[in-house]
């Protein structure tokens, strides 16, 4: 579990650094999205039934992913007809970053909770 956190932390901070460049941000978001979706599938498979907190956090995450996908789809489909180019660029870059930040926060909380549950008890 700590490996998942380390990988996500590295890719998340690399994406934040790449957001300073024009072309690096979208590329970093694609890589970050792939890493986080794979991590979310793993967490859903292993932690969804173990705690109510994990169930709540992961359900909210998957709902946000569906909403974000719809927003991005509609933005790409109607980009120039409905909103101007600058607004669509902000939507394309900001909404995935918001969901990625939420996932990074819940990943940290769930891994800490998982480690506390599976921590061996010391007997005296």
Structural overview:
The longest helix is centred in the last third of the chain and has 33 residues, at 85-117. The chain has helices at residues 2-18, 24-47, 52-77, 79-82, 85-117. The protein has five helices and no strands. Helix 3 packs antiparallel against helix 5. It has one domain (2-116). The radius of gyration is 17 Å and the shape is elongated. The chain has 124 residues and is mainly α. 84% of the residues lie in helices and 0% in strands.
Short précis:
This protein is mainly alpha-helical and 124 residues long.
Element-level helix/strand string? HHHHH
> Mean of residue pLDDT?
85
Low-confidence stretches: none
Task: Tally the beta strands.
Answer: 0
- As an assembly, this protein is single chain
Keywords, separated by commas or semicolons:
124 residues, mainly alpha, 5 helices
Topology:
Layout: H1 2-18, H2 24-47, H3 52-77, H4 79-82, H5 85-117
């Amino acid at each position: 579990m700590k490996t998942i956190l380390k990988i996500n932390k590295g890719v998340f901070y690399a994406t934040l650094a790449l957001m300073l460049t024009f072309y690096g941000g979208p590329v970093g978001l694609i890589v970050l999205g792939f890493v986080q979706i794979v991590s979310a599938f793993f967490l859903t498979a292993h932690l969804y039934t173990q705690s109510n907190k994990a169930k709540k956090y992961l359900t909210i995450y998957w709902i946000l992913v569906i909403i974000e996908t719809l927003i991005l789809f509609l933005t790409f489909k109607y980009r120039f007809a409905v909103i101007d180019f600058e607004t669509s660029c902000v939507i394309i870059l900001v909404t995935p970053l918001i969901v990625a930040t939420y996932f990074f926060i819940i990943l940290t909380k769930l891994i800490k909770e998982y480690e506390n549950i599976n921590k061996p008890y010391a007997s005296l």
